[in-house]
Amino acid sequence: MKPSLLGNRDLIRAMNRSIVLNVIKTNGPIARAEVARQTGLSPATVTGITAELIGENLVFEKDMGDSSGGRRPILLAINPSGGYVIGIKLTETHAIGALTDLEATVIHKRTDNLHGRDPEVIVKQLSLLVSELLKMAGLPKKKLLGVGVGLAGIVDSEQGMLRQSPFFGWRDLPLGEMLQAQVRVPVYVDNDVNTLTLAEMWFGGGQGIDSFLIVTVGRGVGLGIVVNGQFYRGARGGAGELGHTVIDPEGPTCECGKHGCLEAFVGDPGLVRMATEAANRGEIHGPITSMSDLLTQAEAGDSGARAVFAHAGDILGQGIANLLNIFNPQKIIISGEGTRAGDLLFGPMRESIARNVMPGLARDTSIQIDAWGDDAWALGAASLVLHELFESPLNR
Ligand SMILES: [Zn+2]
User: Are residues 217 and 184 in the same domain?
Assistant: First the structure.
């Protein structure tokens, strides 16, 4: 949620502040004169803004020492403990919270089971999760800069409005406003894949890269898009539904109601369904009732189980080859809990990309597969708040 619309002068001031903060974050420790050179702001403006940032403890002066015996340069750096943020990932059954410092280092984590699907009850639980994390860290409320929430579905992040949630069945729920009324710090809400994209952009493999895509695999298949250094959301926040691009109109029914979406072949429920059918036909050592059953069989060398992953990898590779043709990105980052399948999925995926991409385009893009950590989604949600801090209001 945006606190308020800014007037022109306030907007310029807020922009300059974010630009300075961003340069210090990206290139610090850095001298004031260098900040002025890189931002194009006057030395007086830089001095004024940095004095404010130092006063707020967000930035500190680092005495670097100069071995040449000359005057010691005073350099500016982000003060990691100048403020804290909390990120929460909402799944169908759990709220996973992480408290991080300004460098996105996770200080404390906590996971709570959700009590049902009533929005009022869940918002109370989230508010409790926030206070518990502060208590664990021994931090006063005033050190908390904001709370970010990431969840599946279509989110109007400007309004903190959840337009549609496939898992909870919520529609047009003002989740940001509801939680902000409880926790009394700024609350930002976004689609969970978008939050992961921001985390990669500011703190991960997307730092300093102008055009990259992040593809998430797991429960669903998502896509985050960064073009020309800007995060792309589409007309009303709905961009990136890679999982619901149709691969085969005669294919299995998808959760969205259509047939043969990519996600129906590559997402966890689709894989388990295909594996269960194969086990019933005697093609896999059964029974298979979950992803971990399937993974165990495949890792033990069961050829039927490996074929299920190979088929999914092949289809994922087709989807990614299409993305390479459309975006010609510098990098594709693959993330999400589905990366646990490793080469079972990504070997066939790489072969499929090579087979399906327009000749000559593949070499422009590097592919990075993230090692998955359970706190990655919560860290992504925390980045939502850090993004507000470091990103110029004009680019938000
Ligand atoms: Zn679908």
Answer: no
